[in-house]
What does this fold into?
Amino acid sequence: MTCLKSCMSSPNECNAALRKCTISILIDSTKLLCCQITSYCSLLSLSSRIFPLKPQNEYIEESIKKHGRRMDHDEKKRKKEAREVHTKAAMAQKLHGLKAKLYNKKRHAEKIQMKKTIKMHEERNNKHKADDKPVSEGAVPTYLLDRENQTRAKVLSNMIKQKRKEKAGKWSVPLPKVKGLEEAEVFKVMKTGKKQSKQWKRLITKATFVGEGFTRKPPKYERFIRPMAMRYKKAHVTHPELAATFCLPILSVKKNPNSPLYTQLGVMTKGTIIEVNVSELGLVTQSGKVVWGKYAQITNNPENDGCINAVLLV
Amino acid sequence: MTRCTSTLTGHTEAILQVCFSPDGSKLATASGDKTVRLWDLLTETPIATLTGHTNWVQCVAWSANMSYLVSGSMDNTVRVWDPKTGKNLGNALKGHNDAVTSISFEPMHKNINCTVRVWDATLRKLIFGLSQHTAAVMAVKWGGEDVIYTASRDKSIKLWDSKEGKLIRTLNGHAHWINHIALTTDLVLRSGPFEPNSGIIGVPLKFSSAQEAFNKATERYQAHIKANSEKLVSCSDDFTLFLWDGLSSKKPITRMTGHQQLVNNVCFSPDGRYLASAGFDKSVKLWDGKTGKFLTTLRGHVGAVYQVAFSPDSRLLISSSKDSTCKIWDLKTFKLKNDLPGHSDEVFAVDWCPMGWGGGSGGKDKCLKIWKC
It folds into this structure.
């Protein structure tokens, strides 16, 4: 027992102690088992050493290990493998009906797979020249090699074209068609007057942009009320080429496709074109001036979402 | 330089380097479309397209006697061309195992034949290899005093004996990649026998014999070296520049701080009085070429400044930038003299003609622009 304890306390001496231990158990196992053994685990490990537990049903492997294989094992194996195609072909000819269908499908898939693997191996084996590598696009000088490659915003391609488009008020936009907005949807009629009988005031129910220096008309004469809660100063603008989004200040509402009245009022709905301040993006014109204002189209429903998402028109 | 005299198209990829011939009659452009193009500057027309490389051509250089043009490419080879015919002389010079980033010629006053020696990121083959740098070599210069300078991304500059290829000295000090080095003798070595402002625009100067050209080159170099000893300046990713007198000492003359972003390019004025550095912080800074004292900052670019070049008379400076413009700076007033818009994308390379009558620039918009006074 002392021996067992010592083996628990110091694993280094474990083996030697165990050997001694087993001898003592073999001599008088009943006596030992009667003893109180504190650690159940150690008993288990001990017993597994004494009577090794084997996985079941590995008698074939066991036999091979013990006696080796039959003399003609390899030859038979080779022949069987060589014959396999013939057996398979014979099978394919013999089968009919649903089984044939399934079998042929399986063979077909196997053949495709095999051809693919062969091709892959062939590709791996033939030696490629270093210059077979395709030349990548976007050449950069040596001093820009290995630098963190930020995708660069292209310089505005053609200023004249842009100006012309501006004049016509037409842009090729990501959202070419928008749902029409009825006046009833945008404007809520407000009843005014002592008896609440006048109905000439309108409350705008959509998101609006109100310029920096805007002062309201005296409330008595204000026909269109733009609630403070629905006013926005900034928009989340995505640059399609950079694939990055920036929070940019809105400069103005350029065009609301639904009605010129909405444009005038600064109503921002889905599809509206707004002008945003892109100076922090660092875009430059051909003459090297920093581009300041640029157009973007709103892509979400600001009145529902509580924010404005837009795509920059490049 | 005030106007763009021509916009030469032809390349199908970005132009990566622009290099005037020493006599100012031709211009070579290296491009990402695997070709080098030669342009005639008298008529401003293309002469030849030099095809052969199989990847981006990163650098191009002329020998001082105009007999060779050499280009180095991402395909790990260097090719030698005959600028007269545009033919490839021999096969590609292999030996590098990575992209060729910089090429330098032996100065003409030392060797009349201007033998070609080849350089690369890590190795120099053919004659001897210089392989002690542990990272890509970004710039290589062959000084006038039998010394080869190499600057590498492993933060060191090494000086080599150009006869035997032995290491003379290692200059340490930078804390990050070294991007470029410049010598006070750059222009005089590059232009060899050709005196600035001595010929008519675009018309090559003729020397009766090679010996005469050699004598002229030696004379020019001696005059220059008498006025200024050969000094070296290096610029780095650690936002600083170092001024070295590499021939005599291991210690830098000064460390020049002030840039707020990495310094990409540096250039000595041909008379050695000024030193200009181009930083990614959108500014060009001017320093005293002798002491390294800070003079002024030239602001005006709205994008990272990529390259700078001095005019041969040291009166003007041109800088090219990511913001698609080149700008000319006056060194008398330290002000912007001219803005040269016209490129429609980043300007990667700019060069001032060694003859002094103009410059050329090329960039991502695939056009070469010739600027004249």
